[in-house]
Design brief:
The chain has 151 residues and is an all-alpha fold. Helices cover 44% and strands 0% of the residues. The two termini are 38 Å apart. The relative contact order is 0.08. GO terms for molecular function: nucleic acid binding; zinc ion binding.
């Protein structure tokens, strides 16, 4: 459940209790709201419990900011995973001739053949994985694509 929805739900419960004649104080509402959060919110919950004065509005603001930060970090982590899945690991290729740049940084010429032999995969050949260098699957299907320990 999104934080905004959770906060609305808690405020609505408080309003219903008030209509029923059992109103709760603002501080009790804040305590119950914070106690209902999962462990992902522990850093901000501890910070909010340490504050001597805390309004409902201030609590909402801090919780929504924290949720926004969590979502931002999660999206960056997902981007990092997708990026690293596209990186193959380094292998030694027998036809590699080394750097094609001279010591002065200029291009040396072209007596270089790529490690694939300069030819495509052909009609019936299978792809080579960029992650594990095995033939028959691509990095997207590779079992090791998320294994950071695999090299």
């Amino acid at each position: 459940m999104k934080m905004q929805d959770y906060l609305i739900k808690m405020k609505n419960l408080s309003d219903k209790l008030k209509l029923a004649g059992n109103s709760i104080s603002n501080s009790d509402l804040i305590i119950q709201t914070l106690n209902g959060l999962n462990s992902e919110y522990n850093p901000v919950v501890v910070k909010l419990f340490d504050q001597t004065t805390l309004s409902w509005i201030d609590m909402q603001s801090q919780l929504l900011s924290f949720e926004s930060r969590i979502e931002q970090l999660n999206s960056l982590n997902n981007l990092s995973i997708h990026f690293s899945a596209n990186l193959g690991h380094k292998t030694d290729h027998p036809n590699w001739r080394g750097n094609k740049f001279g010591s002065n940084g200029n291009w040396r010429g072209s007596n270089f053949r790529s490690w694939r032999g300069g030819r495509g995969r052909g009609r019936n050949s299978k792809p080579t994985c960029q992650v594990c260098s095995k033939i028959g699957h691509t990095a997207v299907q590779c079992f090791y694509r998320f294994d950071k320990a695999y090299q």
